[in-house]
Amino acid sequence: MPGKLVNITIVTEFLLMGFPDNWMLQKLCAVLFFLIYLTALMGNLLIVILTTIDQHLQAPMYFFLKNLSFIDICYISVTVPKSNMNSLIKSYSISFLGCALQIFLFTTFGITEYVLLIVMSYDRYAAICHPLHYEIIMNRHACVRMVTASWFSGCIYGSIHVAGTFSVNFCGSNIVHQFFCDIPSLLTLACPGEEILEYAFLIASFSFAFLCFIFIITSYVYIFSAVLRIPSAQARFKTISTCMPHLIVVALFLFSGIVTYLGTNYTSATSLNLFISVLYTMLPPSLNPLIYSLRNKDMKAALGKLLSGEVRLKI
């Protein structure tokens, strides 16, 4: 029996059609995206500046936080500026190479952030469960190696998934029902059966991510066990308060990711799809600075010094 013929398309560009057709809604979304992007940019840049110039913010926790903020700036900058530019000039195309680059950068920064959050959970574990050896465990060289490993993991992940996604042939339409290039949306355009390799990569990635999540849970089991052994209620509260921002950020990052990949319909553009995508791509980078700043006395003190002129920014 002869095989079924498929119409393989040579794709040179994709059309990012993640916005609903309503013109007014598109403009409102563009304004909202810009405001969220500006908030994320200013908040994360402020944390990078404070943790760089203030001598009281040189502990490993703030070194990791500075890197997290830098990653968040890169993460949100991959998608929002291009999307807003498309809305302004009413051109929704992105080149094949541009789409591949966007997927690589988006996945690289996303996984780098996830691995860094795992490193930060280990930092909290070392600080609370092994306080006498903390400075030895989390010395400067160890911190740099951990951050380097986070970036290396992200780059490897991004390279694998770009190779897996663009190893397929595309059939029919080149319309991506998303406001940026992402893997699930592109796989809906692949010829039948050719997306198996990338799906295998995705399953392996989610399995590895789940093992990393177990590591975070295990770290906090030990942390809470150590906290419960502290006799003073005030000391217990103070200790656990140092972990709360990290726990909230991890929960926000994982929750938004799970909701996005389980709740999005990648074959059509709807207001719900747009809302879910915004939840994943913009909410964590814009809320992370707020979460870490509100409960941190040292950060608020450093900000006060900067605003009052006690600490000057050297250019």
Automatic annotation (TrEMBL):
Protein name, entry field: Olfactory receptor
Organism from which the protein derives? Orycteropus afer afer
Question: Which cellular component appears as one GO term in the record?
Answer: plasma membrane
> Where is this protein localized, as stated in its record?
Cell membrane
Q: Which GO terms describe its molecular function?
A: G protein-coupled receptor activity; olfactory receptor activity
Q: Which family does it belong to?
A: Belongs to the G-protein coupled receptor 1 family.
Residues passing through the membrane, by range: 24-50, 62-80, 92-122, 142-160, 199-223, 244-262, 274-294
| Keyword Ubl conjugation belongs to the record | no
Q: Which UniProt keywords apply?
A: Cell membrane, G-protein coupled receptor, Membrane, Olfaction, Receptor, Sensory transduction, Transducer, Transmembrane, Transmembrane helix
Q: Which InterPro entries match?
A: GPCR_Rhodpsn, GPCR_Rhodpsn_7TM, Olfact_rcpt, Olfactory_GPCR
Residues in G-protein coupled receptors family 1 profile domain copies? 43-292
The protein's job, in short, is: Odorant receptor.
Topology of the protein relative to the lipid bilayer: Multi-pass membrane protein
